[in-house]
Structures are given as structure tokens and as C-alpha cells.
Amino acid sequence: MHSFLFPATFRRDAKGRIVVGRAGYGASGRGSCDCLGSVLAFRIAEKSKIHASSRLKRGQRLVPVPLWIAGKLALYLTMIEQGVSVRRLGVRETAVRRMLDPDLAEEAGPGGPAADEGVRPTAR
Length: 124
Known about the structure:
2 domains, 124 residues, alpha+beta, 4 strands, single chain, four-stranded antiparallel sheet
């Protein structure tokens, strides 16, 4: 199971703005999630490795993965972990590419794009 919380260091720059991490992204509150989401979206698009969340260290706070990328991240990590190819999923490659594309928002429910590909939500 994957953790969708990542540790980050917050500090203030010379102008008093809150800066997240070493990369120097200026953000606070929701902005830190957006920075994390952008980094994860880039890694998914580039098919790069996404490291597991590290242990929380002194002075760090946990930043949640934003909802707009969480589903795509879960699919991406599971496909890599399980060694599942698009062919094994039984849907067209374009559907999987669309599900993983960070620039596209997937609609949930029976009328969304996933339903067009024969993927149906399961009852709980």
C-alpha cells in the first residue's frame, strides 16, 4: 500500500515568503500540495521512478497528494508494482494514456470516460 503523504521542509525566504523544500517553491497551505502535485505529474508524464514517502524528520510536515493527481498516481504506481501492461488491463491504450495524463481530469461515475472503455465501478 502506498502512502499519499510526503514530508516537506517549510522555511521563510528573505522576503518573508514561505518556501517549500530545497527546490525553493514559494507556497503555503494548499500551494505546497500543488507543488507536490506538479512534481508527481511531471514524473508520471516522463515515466520516471517515484520514490516512496520517506520518514518524517525533525522540522518537516506531511503534505498530502492533491486529489487531482492521487488517482493517477495510484494507477501509475500499481501498474509498475504489479508489472501490468496496458494489454493486460483489457482496455485500449488511449484510455490508459488518458487516465494517466496529468493534464486531463477523469470524470468518476457511469457517464465518465472510463465507462466508455467498458470499465464499470464495483459495488461495495
